[in-house]
Amino acid sequence: MRDLDAALGDGDLGITVRAGSEAVVKALSALPEEAQINEILLAAGRAFSTANPSTFAALVGGGLLAAAKTMQGKSEVSRDDALTIGQAVASRITKRGKSKLGDKTVLDALLPSLDTLQSSQGDALASLDAMIATAQARVDETVSMQSQKGRAAWVQERSIGHADPGATAYVCFLQAMRHAMDA
């Protein structure tokens, strides 16, 4: 991930994702077993956003904090709840990042995968598998796109030929969720 980000930006995305993920694991392990979903999302958002001072960390962390507000009093996550969480994250990233679908950002994988979740009919694993397939297909499509936002936009047409690092990180997140569900 670092190499992919280095081709388009400052190369810190791998560090951000690793530091953020490690901070989230630590924060979640400190929560009581009976923690509510909003508490889990709040802890994850705070941990991810403060683990490494980067734009991606701020966007993801802020998205998780926004999602926490939608899950008050919930102890389980239904398909509709998962969709609500994803939509809250996407909305915050859209607003704070001033970006949209087609700008060659994480949104190019996130938003279509949420559409897939919304229309999926299978169980949780089948739905997640479909989300992963959609997100990966959209990451592949970002290769032919020119970056419109962030440091990647600075390289202009040289961004063509590289997958978007944020969208790639999102696919890795979905794959990690899938792996955890198998465990």
From TrEMBL:
Residues 1-179 form the DhaL domain. Its EC number is 2.7.1.121. GO terms for molecular function: glycerone kinase activity; phosphoenolpyruvate-glycerone phosphotransferase activity. Keywords: Kinase, Pyruvate, Transferase. SMART domains: Dak2. One of its GO terms (biological process) is glycerol catabolic process. This is Phosphoenolpyruvate-dihydroxyacetone phosphotransferase, ADP-binding subunit DhaL. The lineage of its organism: Bacteria, Pseudomonadati, Pseudomonadota, Betaproteobacteria, Burkholderiales.
